Inverse folding.
């Protein structure tokens, strides 16, 4: 393959940045604020940060379940948009709202009745001196409040995803920015009790998150409804009828279920990895929280490119432009890898300095966080290729293949390896990089499937 074929022209990069930059900016601000939140909670104490981190691991499963289900439907939304079919888009949005309600009720029941049991999976006796009882208390306090924000989070994602899939990445970006600013400001006010607000600690962090999610949901839905006659015609009559054509329901469900299961299994798999890491001690939980928060800030470039690949490829496939889709995806993957290399260098140098800001977190946790961050930096190009391959395969409806590709490798290789290596007596300093390098298998499989063009098909 010639290097020249991987480089686009001026029009290509203009199109790419039009789609990707708003997503990148929103993700950057979101993750920057998440890091500030993490710093604020971490400044209270190691047990508080560990408790919040554990709950966020559990809520992460709900978040990705919503993302997976909505994304599966979004494959059809993008292709309906390519055909200018507003009725089809309306049906897919309606389907997403049904999913949001069902997933919320399931999550509410699970967390309400089994929350403490799930939290205890991450808390283990060790020699690092962490207070497990205090950590459990903080985790339960945080969970009780955060549950209130699950439904608006899901609805906001349904609308934001539809807007992005129909070409409007700007509105979700702005609403997302507003939400994260509110989250950051009220975190400061409620965690520490500033300017007359009560000092609520971890409950304040949860309350700020819930508030920001309601604000984001209300703004997105209000704006979409207000512009239904001009900008978003598919929003008209969205609640006039609750029906979805049976044929479309069956087709969407067939594609959505594998993606939904993939995200649920992938997020639970990542949580099980955290459980395996937590066997090494409470400081590992704190270090993982710091390192993941910092890493997420630098991953936004290639993660946003993955979302952009799904949107751009889906539109081209929906319009029947198969050869253009193949050429475009090839260049988008190359661009994504180039971005990941640059961001990896920045993460290794600049990102590794951030743990020093967590002054009230144990020194051993901070030092371990630096090590984790540098490992993340060295494997970022691997994650970039795997992510781009995932979204490419998904754009053509190969949801079962992506299910095996993503969750299959995690559960078959990474999770068992993490536990086996722990019980074999290996230090976390060996276990962590070994698990990260398993991603090379996903790169080989992903590029092979993309190269064979198994994803090049129009669904609608």
């Amino acid at each position: 393959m010639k290097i020249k074929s991987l480089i686009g022209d001026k029009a290509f990069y203009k199109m790419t940045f039009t789609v990707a930059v708003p997503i990148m900016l929103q993700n950057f601000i979101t993750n920057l604020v998440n890091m500030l939140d993490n710093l604020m909670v971490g400044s209270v104490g190691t047990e508080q940060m560990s408790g919040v981190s554990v709950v966020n691991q559990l809520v992460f499963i709900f978040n990705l379940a919503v993302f997976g289900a909505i994304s599966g439907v979004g494959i059809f939304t993008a292709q309906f948009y390519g055909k200018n079919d507003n009725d089809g888009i309306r049906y897919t949005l309606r389907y997403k709202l049904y999913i949001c309600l069902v997933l919320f009720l399931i999550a509410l029941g699970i967390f309400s009745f089994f929350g403490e049991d799930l939290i205890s999976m991450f808390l283990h006796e060790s020699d690092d001196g962490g207070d497990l009882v205090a950590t459990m208390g903080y985790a339960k306090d945080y969970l009780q409040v955060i549950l209130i924000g699950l439904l608006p989070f899901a609805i906001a994602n349904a609308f934001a995803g539809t807007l992005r899939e129909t070409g409007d990445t700007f509105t979700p970006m702005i609403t997302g920015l507003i939400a994260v600013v509110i989250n950051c400001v009220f975190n400061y006010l409620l965690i520490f009790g500033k300017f007359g607000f009560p000092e609520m600690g971890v409950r304040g962090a949860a309350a700020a998150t819930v508030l920001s999610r309601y604000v984001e949901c209300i703004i997105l839905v209000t704006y979409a409804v207000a512009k239904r006659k001009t900008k978003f015609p598919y929003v008209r009559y969205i609640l006039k009828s609750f029906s979805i054509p049976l044929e479309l329901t069956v087709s969407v469900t067939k594609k959505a279920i594998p993606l939904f299961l993939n995200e649920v299994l992938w997020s639970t798999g990542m949580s099980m990895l955290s459980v395996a890491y937590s066997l090494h001690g409470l400081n590992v939980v704190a270090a993982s929280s710091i390192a993941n928060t910092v890493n997420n800030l630098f991953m936004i470039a290639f993660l946003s490119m993955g979302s952009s690949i799904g949107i751009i490829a889906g539109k081209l496939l929906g319009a029947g432009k198969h050869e253009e889709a193949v050429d475009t995806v090839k260049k988008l993957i190359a661009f994504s890898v180039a971005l990941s290399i640059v961001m990896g260098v920045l993460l290794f140098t600049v990102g590794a300095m951030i743990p020093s800001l967590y002054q009230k977190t144990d020194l051993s946790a901070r030092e371990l966080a630096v090590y984790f961050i540098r490992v993340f930096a060295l494997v970022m190009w691997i994650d970039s290729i795997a992510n781009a391959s995932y979204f490419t395969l998904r754009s053509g409806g190969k949801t079962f293949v992506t299910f095996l590709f993503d969750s299959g490798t995690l559960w078959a290789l990474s999770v068992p390896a993490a536990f086996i290596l722990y019980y074999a007596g290996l230090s976390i300093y060996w276990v962590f990089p070994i698990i990260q390098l398993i991603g090379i298998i996903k790169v080989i499989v992903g590029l092979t499937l993309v190269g064979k063009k198994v994803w090049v098909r129009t669904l609608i």
